[in-house]
Design goal:
InterPro entries: Anti-sigma-factor_SerPK, HATPase_C_sf, HATPase_dom. By secondary structure, the chain is of the alpha+beta class. The protein has helices at 13-29, 36-57, 99-105, 116-124, and strands at 2-8, 63-70, 73-79, 127-133, 136-144.
Length: 154
Amino acid sequence: MATVELTFSALPAHVRTARLVATAIARRTGVAEALLDEVRLAVGEACSRAVEAHRVHCPGEPIRIELRDDSGRFEVTVTDSAPNDDLQSPGTANGLVSVEASADSMFGIVPEMPGLGIAVIAGLADDVEVSPGPTGVRIRMSWPAATPNGVPAH
C-alpha cells in the first residue's frame, strides 16, 4: 500500500497540478487506460470545488489530497477546510452523506447549479463517499486498479 499526500493553496492553477499527479499515480497503480480521463476529471471537479470553497471561506488554508493504492483500488481523497455551519444532512449515518443528498444540500457555491460537481464526480468515479463535517468536506473517490499480479481488480 503506497500513499501520496499533497497540499496546495486555494489557487485554480493548482487544480491542474493535482489532476496531473492523480493521473500519473493512477496509471502507475494499474488503473485501466480507459479510466484515466475519468480520474483526471473527477479529481479536477473535487479540487475545483475545494478551491472555490476555500477562496470564499478560508483562503489561507491548504487543500489536502491523499492518493492511495490499496486492495486493488486506486483511491483519491480531497479534503477542504471550509466551514460547514449550515450543512444539513438528514438521514445520514456516521457523518456520511449519499451523493444524492450532498448534491441537493451541500454545494451552493455555484448558485445556478448546486451540487453539479458532486453529481459529475459520482458519474466518473467507481465509488464516491462525501463526508461533511463542521470544518470541511472530505470527498473520497476510487477506481479499480491492477492487483499485484497485474490483473485488474473488480
